Amino acid sequence: MHREVHTTVVTQEEWHSSTRESASYSGWSVSRPSSLGDIVFPAMARHLPPPGMETISSQVKEEYDANYKDGVLAAVKDGTDKWGLMGTDGKWLMAPAYKSLSYAGKGVFMTEGKRGTAYVDKQGAPAVWPEKEAASVHFFKDQGRYGIQDKNGDIVVAPTYKAVLADFSEGLAFVKDNKGEKVAIDEKGRVQFAAPYDVILPYHHGLAEYQRRVSHFNLGGFLAGVLIGSSTHSVYYDDEVAPLTYDGVKRGYLDRVGNIVIDSKNDAVYPMTEFGTFVRNKGKLGFVNRKGQYLIAPGNYSLDDGRLLDDVDGFVSLKDKENGKWGVFSMVDGAQVIDFAYDGVQFLGVQRLLLTKGDKNMLISQETGAFVAEFPAKVKWLAFLLEDYTWCWNDKKEYAIVDRNGQVQYRAAAGQIQDVKSFRNGLTPVKTKTGWGLMDHQGQWIVEPQYKDITMV
């Protein structure tokens, strides 16, 4: 059904009226504005990361479709509650045999079976953890003490260390020496500086995190979490953008010569991103770069209750505690690119942003600042991640596949679909009453729904 409706479009300065066509789809509608392509947030395009800047996106893109090109389609759990790998030809590459199965990078998978945790290749043959294979030296243990060996097995340092606190990364490691002192050493065992911290993590892009105590954290970008990279600084493909929340860890950061770049004595230091991190102190929240310099000056902001971090293009949403509204800042240079005027912000990937105001969600292009499409606020979204398609659904659980221009590609009747996951390599895991299967963006089944679970790898 098509009809003319009179609605509103938000700009950087104010709301103004516009007339548009609206298509109603069984309880929810998608607006195709006559002002399609209008630049409403021009500042966004001027504050993207400069070319060549190393970000999470460069790590992700390196391995994003590597498995698919190597013939691996997905990790699949069968009726025995065991995980295996299915090939792009629809046949088993690795028969279901493991309690868990996840991607460790460089074509290697981490499994858990009867013999505990192990690393295997796509066909289940034993493999080496990628980080260990890449290291020029590694620790070994002999009679309760640790030493250093090179790739050929030659001893570089005899077993004298009481403990390894953090493995080698970027040429440095942290150990407890034979006197019980905590120190940083290079690959030849030479002491670089003292590291008297309760917990310390390996270096990542020139910084090492130290902690007063250990806890877990939730870094809520749409590519944050586990699996590509090292065991402490890595990324995975999440289906939804989780909140960025402070985890209670009293953390700080050291540079490569042991100087404190960000002090753990602040009230709260958030986990580090490729651009920097948030620091809360004396009731004010600000953002500092990886050198410890403030880009967003401390203010009366909140970020603990939003879905609000784009760790690819370097944008973050903050809430103004005074008016209760959300705005958007650049983590590249600290500039505010969208005013505090919105009821919600959601970063979707592929340079798409969803702004909520009242009963409307506005799809915005981050690369141009242009208005793309409008949806009712009650419509929920998965992130695009690095794909051109994603899922939307309304309060009636009517699911639809939408492209990055807001165009509906496929709609499912209410009750037909029970759950969905984000697209990867053009396919999406979908759950029906008969189990999980794989679907393309036009709603065609590539793998019929029959399995206990499916995860794209």
| Sheet of most strands | 5 strands, antiparallel
Give the overall shape. Answer: flat
- How far is the N terminus from the C terminus? 40 Å
Give start-end ranges of low-pLDDT stretches.
1-28, 214-220, 222-242
Give average pLDDT, whole number: 84
- Give the percentage of residues in beta strands: over 45%
User: What is the radius of gyration computed over CA atoms, rounded to a whole number of angstroms?
Assistant: 24 Å
Number of helices in the DSSP assignment: 3
Q: Helix- and strand-based class?
A: mainly beta
Counting DSSP E segments of at least 2 residues, the number of strands comes to 44
| Range of helix content | under 10%
Task: Walk me through what this model shows.
The strands form twelve sheets. Strands 27, 28, 29, 30 and 31 form a five-stranded antiparallel sheet that branches. Strands 6-5-4-44 form a four-stranded antiparallel sheet. The longest helix has 8 residues, at 56-63. By secondary structure, it is mainly beta. It contains three helices and 44 strands.
Explain the layout of strands and helices.
Elements: E1 2-10, E2 15-25, E3 28-33, H1 56-63, H2 66-69, E4 72-77, E5 83-87, E6 92-98, E7 100-105, E8 108-113, E9 116-120, H3 130-134, E10 137-142, E11 145-150, E12 155-161, E13 163-169, E14 172-176, E15 182-186, E16 191-194, E17 199-200, E18 208-211, E19 228-229, E20 234-235, E21 251-254, E22 260-262, E23 268-269, E24 276-281, E25 284-289, E26 294-299, E27 301-302, E28 309-310, E29 315-320, E30 326-330, E31 336-342, E32 344-349, E33 352-357, E34 360-365, E35 371-376, E36 380-381, E37 389-393, E38 399-403, E39 408-411, E40 419-420, E41 428-432, E42 435-439, E43 445-451, E44 453-456
